[in-house]
Amino acid sequence: MKLLNTYEDKHEAEKAEGLIVGEKRLASERDGTELIYNLFGEPNWNNFYKLEMFNLPLLKKLIEQREANVDFDQVKHKEIITMLKYAANSFDLSIPKHWQ
Fold first, then answer.
1. φ and ψ at 23, to 5 degrees?
2. How confident is residue 77, by pLDDT bands cut at 50, 70 and 90?
3. Residue 47, number of CB atoms within 10 A of its CB
4. 31 pLDDT tier (thresholds 50, 70, 90)
5. How confident is the model at residue 32 (pLDDT cuts 50, 70, 90)?
6. How many CB atoms lie within 10 A of CB 82?
């Protein structure tokens, strides 16, 4: 398990925990005078998509547009792929070829 995301709101953190699959854990800690919630889980693209991280929902729409031969925002697509390369490296994942 790795740290997937941090939340300031307990309900938001619990909702996120319910979305992801696999081994998971929600841990709270004090950051000064505020309480924060760390969501630990399995780092995979499905969990990141469910948490709406790394603009994956937008990437899905862009890929659907591309596959339908509809104009899509190529600049935004490239920005997302660049960000995903960093995430893939950080979490030891590979980016599916059909996303690129």
1. -65, 135
2. very high
3. 20
4. confident
5. confident
6. 9
